[in-house]
Specification:
The complex is a heterodimer of chains A (190) and B (87). Chain A has 190 residues and is an all-alpha fold. Chain A is elongated and about 65 Å long. The N and C termini of chain B lie far apart (50 Å). Chain B contains four helices and no strands. In chain B, helix 1 packs across helix 2, helix 1 runs parallel beside helix 3 and helix 2 packs across helix 3. Chain B has one domain. Chain B is an all-alpha fold and 87 residues long. The chains are: A mainly alpha (190), B mainly alpha (87). At the A-B interface, helix 1, helix 2, helix 5, helix 7 and helix 8 of A face helix 1, helix 3 and helix 4 of B.
Chain lengths: 190, 87
Amino acid sequence: METFNKLNPKDWVKKYSDELFRFAFIRVSDEEAARDLIQETFLSALKNLETFKGEISEKNWLYFILKNKIIDHYRKNAKTHLTRIDEGQEQDEFFDESGHWKKEALPNPFGQAVNNQQHSFEFYEILEKCKKKLNEIQLSLFAMKFLDEIDSEEICKELEISSSNYWVLIHRIKLKIRKCLEKLFYGKQH
Amino acid sequence: MENNTNNKKIMITCKEATMLSVQKAEVKLSFSDRMRLFIHLLICQYCRLFDKQMKMIDKLISNWKTDKKLSEIEKDQLQIVIEKELK
């Protein structure tokens, strides 16, 4: 007789809540939003218990629901910030009119500190701070691209942006993150 | 996914070079774009540094970790929500 995976909703909080919370927090950068997403995930799972056929594990099933909730979250964020998408209009803090680095934006080396801390939580706390420099649409795109590794074309479709908008956003995100890492690590060393 | 560069000049600006550095992590650049970037990086130390740091940042981000946890109170609340729904 085949054994199918079963659901035990009473154990979900104890077994999966921290793990799901970390997964969501890294993607939405907001503890409250991450908590809400976990609750929504559990509630939506409870409403759809009969759709669980047991071919995948309980844990993977919950992750599947959470991932969809997170994508909805990105989409909602992107929609409410559509007006900000035309970043060409935004003043360029990195390059002058002729396309050269502005003096204050010239890249500097990160220094040893980064290399020593690559794998520590402390490093990721700094990265977390840098992520907060991004606006909502940049954050959603950042999470979809770099954490969920969603295909670029798929992202454009989900967020309803053109491919040239996409590149402008990715370019801007990376310039901002790089600048912020340089600043925080330089500050640490001196 | 296309990276549309209409610019046909050999010499590109730092803004264009950094854009190519970002794009090459995701798409295969055309031969002419690869040449443009290569030449620019030969003469511009800042964009060369940017290019190098991009590779490192990409690697770091893909290993993102956090030690955040839910508090016991938050867990209790979630548990109550679930039990209530089960009744």
